[in-house]
Amino acid sequence: MQNLPLASEHAGFFIFFISVFGLLIGSFLNVVIHRIPLMMKKEWHTDCCELLAIENQGDEANSTPFNLLKPNSHCPNCKCEIKPWQNIPIISFLSLGGKCANCEENISIRYPLVEAVTALLSGLIALYFGASEQTLALLLLTWSLIALTMIDIDHQLLPDSITLPLMWLGILLNTQGIFTDLGSSVWGAIGGYLSLWSVFWLFKLLTGKEGMGYGDFKLLAALGAWMGWQALPLIIILSSVVGAVIGIAGIIIMGRDKNVPIPFGPYLAIAGWIALIWGEQLTQAYLDYAGITG
After folding, report:
1. Are the CB atoms for 137 and 178 separated by under 8 Å?
2. pLDDT, tens digit, for every residue of 35-44?
3. More confident residue, 24 or 253
4. Alpha helices in 156-264 (DSSP H)
């Protein structure tokens, strides 16, 4: 893809702009991470009440708008609405000393961390791909992977409302050959889903336990749709390596119980993002190490 002339001449400004925009998106992602699971639970509760033909005790609460835009952001402790100047990414957290302006309850450090990571990864996308169609697409993918990672860590849940649109968007983009050809994209989606689906059922037949959730199948299908079936082995290997490193670090550094289940989605998301940025270099490095001509 050819870079847009203005951004090519002012690459530094373009990367800075995308990074700052990433900060703002990171603030919104905090809302997405918090609210989408709650929205899903409310929907499930309503559906169950309808199925069982029982009164929904939450009808009054359900009548109040609750989505990604409403209600306005507020302190979870005192319910005080957060003013716009108290909601500036990272800056407001630092200026308030990490506390609510009203009740002085501590604000989780995770909020500015999500904002900072979103800004950093957005800047890296801009650095590597410049002002191109690929950058626009990969920014959306990156932000979605961040949201999926945090939701899975919190709830061991990968919402269909994010994974399925990602898969279809990957196929749609590749009808124009943005990242790979259409055939590779379609087979990437199919192969991504079926590979983990097969592992799931083999593990369940051998142990009687479920080793992962269906959301993991859909996430790998989405990554396969974006990068093609050729990238699937690298993503699976990288996810295993990332999982091993994070798991061992969690046990040694944080004293995490090794018997506590760890969601696989974050490892897939991290591995998929690494494969998008450095996949070719990693593959070539392996071929060189193995003495195989790439």
Report:
1. yes
2. 999 999 888 8
3. 24
4. 160-174, 182-207, 214-227, 232-253
Q: Alpha-carbon distance 97 to 128, whole Å?
A: 35
Are the C-beta atoms of residues 122 and 18 closer than 8 Å to each other? Answer: yes
- List, for residues 128-166, the tens digit of each pLDDT value: 998 889 999 999 999 999 999 999 999 999 999 999 999
Instruction: Tell me the sheet residues that pair with 81.
Output: 74
Please report which residue ranges of the chain form alpha helices under DSSP H.
Answer: 5-9, 11-52, 59-62, 91-95, 110-129, 133-155, 160-174, 182-207, 214-227, 232-253, 265-289
Please state whether 255 falls in left (phi above 0), alpha (psi between -120 and 50) or beta.
left
Nearest by Cα to 265 from 120, 125, 160: 160
For residues 158 and 154, give the distance between their C-alpha atoms in angstroms, rounded to a whole number.
10
What residue type is 118 in one-letter code? T
Asked whether the beta carbons of 185 and 174 are under 8 A apart, the reply is: yes
How many angstroms separate the CA atoms of 147 and 68, rounded? 13
Q: Which candidate, 231, 225, 232, places its Cα nearest to that of 172?
A: 225
Residue 290: Cβ-neighbour burial (10 angstroms; 0-12, 13-18, 19+): exposed
| Residue from 161, 140, 138, 145 nearest 35 by CA | 161
Region of 285 (left: φ > 0; alpha: ψ -120 to 50; beta: rest) is alpha
